[in-house]
Amino acid sequence: MRPRTPFVVLVAALLAALAAGCSGSEAPGPLGDPTAAQRRIDSLIDGMTKAITPAVTPREDWWYDYDEKRTAFGKETGYADVWRKSYLEQRIAEGKKRVLLDQVEKHWKDQGCTVNPEKPAALQVYVSAVCADQAWVMLEISDDGQAFVEARVNGTKYLGGPSPFPNAHSPQPTASVTPVGQWDDPYWSH
After folding, report:
1. Does 65 fall in a domain?
2. How many folded domains does the chain comprise?
3. Helix, strand, coil abundance in the chain, percent, nearest 5
4. Nearest residue to 168 (alpha-carbon basis) of 80, 36, 29
């Protein structure tokens, strides 16, 4: 009779992986405190928009989105990934996209973040970075010149309830009369 060692090893490995995914003992990320995570998200977006010259006007989503972390069996881990999005009011002309991306990339490098490697020339409308505290941030410019920024923190303590990550922007920003990404700016749009 042949020994079943490979089969036993495979079953043991699968059981170990399954048990690890079901423990619910996931540790928080460096920004595990929800308030600290929200402040970090805001500082990444606000710092980036303030570093751009000539100045740009952000239009922020005033809420935070989140994805509650669960085990393979749907058990709550007590942690969530949290993010917020923002847009620029200005339409970014084709010839200014690289200028904007270069300014943002330089700002993030100056802040100690690691900018992700560049993509092929056809995709040069996107830049992202990971910071020392594991916060992630990105800027993307669409074909029609709409610029979109997102900042994210993973592994934040999930407090539960109807509003686990309450709005830190009060009152809610008022909407511009110009649709997002359609403001004709003398510099950025030409």
Report:
1. yes
2. 1
3. 30, 25, 45
4. 36
Give the range of the structural domain holding residue 78, as residue numbers without chain letter: 28-157
Residues 6 or more apart whose CB falls under 8 angstroms from that of 74 comprise none
- Tokens 């922020």 belong to 60
Q: In angstroms, rounded to a whole number, what is the distance separating the alpha carbons of residues 113 and 184?
A: 31
Residue 59 domain flag:
yes
pLDDT digits (tens, 9 = 90+) for 23-73: 444 555 566 778 888 889 889 999 999 999 999 988 766 567 777 777 788
- Cis previous bond, 54, omega within 30: yes
Q: Give the residue among 144, 168, 182 at the shortest CA–CA distance from 37.
A: 168
pTM above 0.85, yes or no: no
Quick check: is 127 in a domain?
yes
Rg of the Cα trace of the chain? 21
Q: Is residue 130 part of a domain?
A: yes
Q: How far is CA 30 from CA 4, 36, 43, 94, 154, in A?
A: 44, 10, 16, 38, 9
